[in-house]
Amino acid sequence: MDTQQDTTTARIALVSFNSLGDSLIYYMLAENLRQHGYEMTLYGDIAYQLREWMPQIPVRPYPDFNALDRELSQYHHAIISPPQALRQRLNGEFLEHVRSHWQLLCQKAPPTWASEQLKHERQRVLPGKIFSQLAPLLDCGPSIRFKKFNDGSSLVDVVVAFMRERMKLTHAQGNVHLTPPPHLVYQRYPRRIIISPDSAWSDKKDWTPASFIKTARLLQQRGYQPVFTVAPVSHEKWDVILKGEFEHAKFNDIHQLASFVYESGAFIGNDSGGGHLASMLRVPVVTIYRKRNRQFCWRPAWGKGTVVVPRLVLPWFKGGIWRAFIRPADILLALESLLENQDKTLISGKDSS
Questions:
Q1: CB proximity list for 194: less than 8 A, separation 6 or greater
Q2: What is the second-level CATH architecture of the domain 3-165?
Q3: Which of 48, 101, 258, 341 could staple 61 via S-S, CB 3.0–4.6 A?
Q4: What is the pTM of this model?
Q5: For residues 246 and 257, what is the distance between their CA atoms, to the nearest angstrom?
């Protein structure tokens, strides 16, 4: 470690997992650590696309995983939720090296990620004042779900409990925000409703394209402006599906998507990262979920949202039959109820998100 850079404040690198939802969760973690006095740097390719929205934290793309020692040596401590490319290599001598030098962390970590050596190693190489700042963090991993949580707890609730109880961040909170660029206006287009019909697990999570299109037609009949948006890899596929009937907004990075979401009235989508982004931007979210559990842990939980579930699930088939038991009218009803409640909350001046 470069002792010439030692200061009185502990410097921490946080390396995020590589999905959009996880990236926002780890941004929340980094921001809480920053608010508790640590000097934070966040690593992640998705977070880097959103760096303009995180001006209070230095954000960098993933380092060369073949040179982690060199990159992370500039920090007093590193917390790593290994991206897939790194996770595949965590075995044998490399795993032993990583867990003895840095803190591995994820929702449900394998027992092999735990290390009794890390704290001793940090104490051996760090100045006493820096080690005392870091000591509460060094016993907290490697699983964020460190205990049984009540049914209905969101992942935001789980992470906040982890930060308070395990990391000893006494004032930890889930109420963190992204900072929009100054030229953007929150919900500038309140009748524009984003429809995001894809996800990373299309076979398991995605409602049918036909149902999304029927929902868009209902929205249009009610005076809304439905706009479809999907991941770049699905642009051509959805051009064919939409046949020009509805606007298809195409973005090549998360910054562009965030700007569009921030100025829209609401977001409708499958259980996917886009819903978490909208939620952190405090844009109302309607999530379509394949199981009969409106309070599932990974629901968007920063802003106002609602979850639509099937009336029935037939579990005897691979993946379960559920799509037919959610109607487009269910989505419209959920959206309008959510927007009505939002309007009443804002008028009453009680919005706390």
A1: 227, 228, 229, 249, 260, 261, 264, 266, 267, 268, 269, 274, 278
A2: 3-Layer(aba) Sandwich (3.40)
A3: 48
A4: 0.93
A5: 18
- Identify the CATH class of 189-348: alpha beta
Angle at 212 between CA 209 and CA 218, to 5 degrees: 145
Tokens encoding 330: 């269910």
Low-confidence winner among 85-89, 225-229, 331-335, 342-346 (lowest mean pLDDT): 342-346
**Delimiting residues of CATH 3.40.50.2000 domain(s) in the chain:** 189-348
Which residues have C-beta within 8 Å of that of residue 83, sequence separation ≥ 6? 15, 16, 17, 18, 44, 62
AA identity, residue 151: D
Inter-helix orientation angle 235-242/209-221, to 10°: 60
Which amino acid, one-letter code, is at 176? Answer: V
**What does each C-alpha distance from 134 to 21, 72, 208, 270, 272 come to in angstroms?**
27, 16, 48, 39, 34
Pairwise CA distance, residues 160 & 205, whole Å? 26
Query: How high is the pLDDT of residue 344?
Result: 55
Q: Which helix (H) or strand (E) holds 43?
A: strand 39-43
Average pLDDT for 142-165: 95
List pLDDT tens digits, range 67-100.
999 999 999 999 999 999 999 999 999 999 999 9
- Given this model, what pLDDT does residue 343 score? 61
DSSP label of 33: H
Q: What is the pLDDT of residue 17?
A: 96
Task: Supply the pLDDT for residue 2.
Answer: 44
What is the rounded distance in angstroms from the CA atom of residue 16 to the CA atom of residue 31? 13
